[in-house]
């Protein structure tokens, strides 16, 4: 069966953004998942994980508020590459040694991972037929549990094999390699970029006002805040909690991965339901 050009482009960009979100989620979630090994090696109290998560969350908030103009100016595919490179850099910084660099890593990695979502949404919004958009976006979003699944399985295993620094560096390298692999796609998928788009500090203020001014967007943003907050708490502390209860890191990571396996068909189902099929 012959596939028309629009369908082919949709499949290409969906595949690319699925992998982009997978790597972004893997990089964002790996440090908290292997945190027990990091804290044991550096003699850090587990309570400090909360500081790392808070710094990453604050950075994510700021990056998402201000990245819209960058996406318009440089292209969503380019900003996807930038997000992956920054994420890799953030993980590499964490391996250097001093604890304070983990905060730097959290700021870089948290912001970069957050920027990957609006970039991918911008691309899929261009190429998805409106009726199919819920299904397309739900498939793309299964990359989140897919990335968490990989982090839960590979993170503890790589930590046992190479140490926590080796695990972070391998994940960082994978992000850099995939960022380079996206380069051939830029000509088509960044064709809508606006090189004259201005980047201003007022973008942060404008983004908040544009959401709060509309009741439907305001309600949706508060709902997303609740769901995303719950997900962040679960993914950040679940493995640490199990290890603190006496379970091994590999076993805790495996249990975490089982929960992520269940999340994949759930996301696809809700997208299918939302598309009216």
Protein architecture, described:
The protein has helices at residues 5-33, 35-42, 49-66, 68-74, 76-94, 100-127, 133-141, 143-181, 186-189, 202-212, 215-244, 249-274. Helices cover 82% and strands 0% of the residues. The model has no long low-confidence stretch (mean pLDDT 86). It contains twelve helices and no strands. It has 277 residues and is mostly helical. Helix 1 packs parallel to helix 5 (76-94) and helix 5 packs antiparallel against helix 6 (100-127).
- The quaternary state of the protein chains shown equals single chain
Which structural category do the helix and sheet elements fall into? Answer: mainly alpha
Gyration radius, to the nearest Å? 19 Å
Shape: globular
Series of secondary-structure elements, N-terminal to C-terminal: HHHHHHHHHHHH
Average predicted confidence as pLDDT: 86
The N- and C-terminal alpha carbons lie at a distance of: 23 Å
Give the proportion of residues in helices: over 70%
- Number of helical runs? 12
Q: Got a strand count?
A: 0
Estimate what percentage of residues fall within beta strands.
under 5%
Spans where pLDDT lies below 50 across 5 or more residues: none
Q: Main beta sheet, described?
A: none
Helices and strands, with pairings:
Blueprint: H1 5-33, H2 35-42, H3 49-66, H4 68-74, H5 76-94, H6 100-127, H7 133-141, H8 143-181, H9 186-189, H10 202-212, H11 215-244, H12 249-274
Helix pairs in contact: 1-5, 1-6, 1-7, 1-8, 3-6, 4-5, 5-6, 5-8, 7-12, 8-12, 11-12
